[in-house]
Every structure is written in structure tokens, then in C-alpha cells.
# Entry
Amino acid sequence: MIEDDQNAILDLYRDADVVIWSFPLYCYGMPSQLKAVLDRTIPLVKMNMVRQPDGTVRHEALVDFSKIHTLVICGCGFPHWEGNFDGLKKMCEVCFGNPDIVCVPETPLLNVPEAAIVADPLLEKFQKAGETYAAELRLSAGTVAELEKPMISAEEYIRNVNGGT
Ligand SMILES: Cc1cc2nc3c(=O)[nH]c(=O)nc-3n(C[C@H](O)[C@H](O)[C@H](O)COP(=O)(O)O)c2cc1C
# Structure
């Protein structure tokens, strides 16, 4: 038995209506520190295995996961390219059921003061989307598409990262 903050996290998880996982993309997945938190939610299920109607197999839950709305927000350092988030999305879909997932490219721009002209409008969209999510506990496909729209073109982003040449 390890006595650390994970016990408090498990208590929060048991009572949660909403769980938001927000993190940067590391090597096409969740950062290992956060993955350890996820791995250590295993006490929320029994070892018994149950075949699901969709053919998947799950452990019998000790918590009513169907009442928990899961939102995954992930930023990444590459410009948009097809497939960068595929591994993460698959893992989240299998792990969390049917979560809302927002995958944002070019997020280091959010920390660059010179990029405020393109970053601030995105942050405003996130603010509004957060309000909608709080009210509806769902994000529409249109809202997700807006949040995932690159701030600048891939070529301009690559040029800037490479020193503007
Ligand atoms: C170890 C590591 C792995 C990363 N892997 C990816 C990756 O697979 N794809 C990507 O687009 N960005 C990747 N990045 C970039 C980060 O997602 C991006 O820079 C993010 O803004 C970093 O946030 P942080 O400063 O909070 O760690 C990686 C960064 C680090 C440090």
C-alpha cells in the first residue's frame, strides 16, 4: 500500500461528475507522470472481467463510470499533421469510453508574447467552450473543430521554430 496523494485522487474520482485530463502530448501519448496517475486508478475496478455488448472486455467497475463525463485536452509542439494525435485518441477512447477530446497543435505559441495576436483569439474560444461545456457537459463537433484549428500555417510555424529562415 503506497500512502501518497493518489488516495485523495481516487476519492475525488469516485465522487466525480466530470474529469478533465489536460496535458501536453509527449511521444504521441500522455506524459509518463500523468500516465502513472491513470495506471493507479486500477483500484476503482475489480479483477473480474466482463464482456461488453460491443465485444470489448472490461474489469467490473467499483464506481459508476457511466455518470462521469470525461474531457481530454491535449496540446502539442508540432504543427498540424494527420496522425500526430491518433495513438493518444485511440487510448483515450478505449480507456474513457466516449470522452470529448480536444487536440490542439502549435501550443508553444501560447507562451510567446509576440504570438498573442493569434493566441489570444484561441484562448477566447477556449473560454467560451469552457462555459458551454460547464452548461452542457458536451462539446459539439463544430466547437472542437474551432479549438483544433491551427493558429498559423504549418509552414510558417516550422519556419519560426527553425529560426525564421
Ligand atoms: C518529452 C517530450 C515529448 C514530446 N512529444 C511530442 C509529440 O509526440 N508530438 C508533438 O507534437 N509534440 C511533442 N512534444 C512537444 C510538447 O507537446 C509541447 O512542446 C508542449 O507545449 C510542451 O508543454 P510543457 O512545456 O508543459 O511540457 C514533446 C515535448 C517533450 C518535452
Q: What stands out?
A: The first helix runs from residue 6 to 15.
